[in-house]
């Protein structure tokens, strides 16, 4: 078990991971990555204490109390605690992270997907970048498949940060009231989160020096298999995002595309959207949204390739 | 040459051999080896000497000769030649050391010979142990052994066709009770504390077993025979060795197990060894590659991190630091090994010499792999098959020095290589980058496989094709790696000019062309379709060529017509021009003052003149 190494003058970092039907082996593997990256950050004197909080959206708990103790025991002194919370229902990624962040200590929040493995220097590099007061969110560079989103090669500045592995100041997280889990369940919550941060004047940047392995696998026919729930939430998320960021043209375009397409799943997402419109469960348009929101060729940023 | 020189007691009279000595033959090779080793002058004890074929050349070299045999007729023959001859039954191994000591009779023993003897001894290990004990008593002289090679390609080729022809003499002398390969001879010797000093093997391209010469397994022009010889050559250098002629020194090495006792599989072997090749120039790239490995869905692999740099420091220390940053669950499975000198293949070969795992896969530090890279290899491994996975390709470029990016991704993923291994397409070019295949260690050991260190590039293609010539290739049909093609920067693709790649490609194609190409079942259909397409293509080409020819002919005709027309037009133009000139001259004349004054009288005068003429 990690010992408490708190240095009160240095920031406390809280790593948060939301689980859903993941295998315990995957959690163990992630522990090894997080632990090594935490050790490097502690050794570098960049943070005083690092915690790892796991939230579980699965119907039945993935981890038993003994498993959690074993994880905690296996971690080095760099990880002061490993905690686990099984949620009463599936709150989605955004809801899970918001609940994990409630009433917890920490000056910095690292949002980390369960299907990742941070490189040993990832936390160090992310924290270094956040030392710039203009920067609100720092995203790690994903490997082996890099996100095609464009970013400035010198400053790292970009349109939005993926929630796969992103570091944010706790203060900013609270200021923008975390992820909008009322309107975003799984997809586009990170885009919305990033744009709200940018609207407050914070920069969103990519830190290429901070690598994080993200377990993505193309199919043999060169396609990217997306399970039904991803198709559903990406369509619904896009409609919600375009509504929030005051782009009725994108809403119409998306609806037309879904109606012209053959995907029953996306049609179900459209039905849900319409139901929410009827019941008023859609976000109010952000004023002055054009200053940050980008809807380009179906994406939310210019893509490099 | 294998013979049976009377050595052991036998109820039936043993045939005697009277092979005459020649420097080109196996006896000559044995004496050459003695000359090369040059043991101090003294007694040479020739155990199982028969007629003493090599006595005279040894005497000529200044050695004393003692022939030892059980055959009285052979001994009598030696005595008649004035040679010292002693009777000894080599089957009495308990007495052997003492008897050897007696016949040395206090003299310095320079050498002990076992020429064409060991293959007639029923129990090799006890006998060699007794010989080793004798050598100890005699002051540890070297031992020269000459035995026939049962793994000559002629024997293997015939056996593949169900033929095993015993003969009165030769490789399959019917009195042989033991058979030796190079590996077995060395193993047996080592097991008895005998360390090899030197070799002068006798080779025969066509052995005495090369009969019938027109057998498909033996005929020089038969594709089967060519294939068998190619395979045999790949295994070791002794396909054409007829006789192993080796010298051994008694020593105090720990007796090793014989090959017969090391056949059990090592069940505890790691499933996969991953050889990572780095020059340690960009820490961030190496860290990326290692992060991908640390994130694998299985821990059942070890990593040999080959640091290829001439100066170990500071690079080696930096690489070790990168490894040490990882969790011990991973870093404890990484061995960092420094390799200097040589080209790109040097570190790979250095790793192959260290492999203990069942399979080995390769990764350059600028390649990246998916989480199931190892798992896919391991799941598909087995049965001696090479395992191959799919790969995505993308273009990257090196960033400016001021940037800390390990590489800049310039393209989306491309899936340009087929998921199924296609041997025919691979004859043309490589579709299996080094990060996409794993080779069983058994294949590497059986064939002594190594990368060709002379090749500047494409060493992976060469290695794969040589491996795949002997093994099936099993496709995982999963895309598990990202092969990065460099637009610029430090990589094999950018460091080497295009012409080097193309030249190497041609060299390797030529090499492949010199070897028989064995294709698995199903290839015929593929070849037929390819040939069909070629034939159809040829027919279409001929048709097009015919049409082109006709068109050209027509065009030529048209050009000729046009040329004629142009000529007519030109001539007409010239006539018109002339006419115009005349007309203009006429006009000038008619309109001239002179014509106006003199023209009418001149016409009158002309009329008068014509009238006068007629009159």
Largest sheet of chain B: 9 strands, mixed
Cα-based radius of gyration of chain A, to the nearest Å: 19 Å
Shape of chain B: elongated
- How many helix segments of chain B? 20
CATH topology of the largest domain in chain A: Spore Coat Polysaccharide Biosynthesis Protein SpsA, Chain A
Report the total helices of chain A: 9
Question: What order do the strands of the largest sheet of chain A run in, or round the barrel if closed?
Answer: 3-2-1-4-7-6-8-5
Domain unit count of chain A: 2
- The proportion of residues forming helix of chain A, as a percent range, comes to 25-40%
| Computed structural class of chain B | alpha/beta
Shape of chain A: globular
Q: What's the multimeric state?
A: heterodimer
CATH class of the largest domain in chain A: Alpha Beta
The beta-strand count of chain B equals 17
Mean pLDDT over all positions of chain A: 93
- For the secondary structure, the number of strands of chain A is 8
Structural class of chain A comes to alpha/beta
**Largest interface, Cβ cutoff 8 Å:** A-B, 34 and 39 residues
List the helices and strands of chain A in order.
EHEHEHEEHEEHHEHHH
User: Taking Cα atoms only, what radius of gyration of chain B do you get, to the nearest Å?
Assistant: 42 Å
Unreliable stretches covering 5 or more consecutive residues of chain A = 1-6
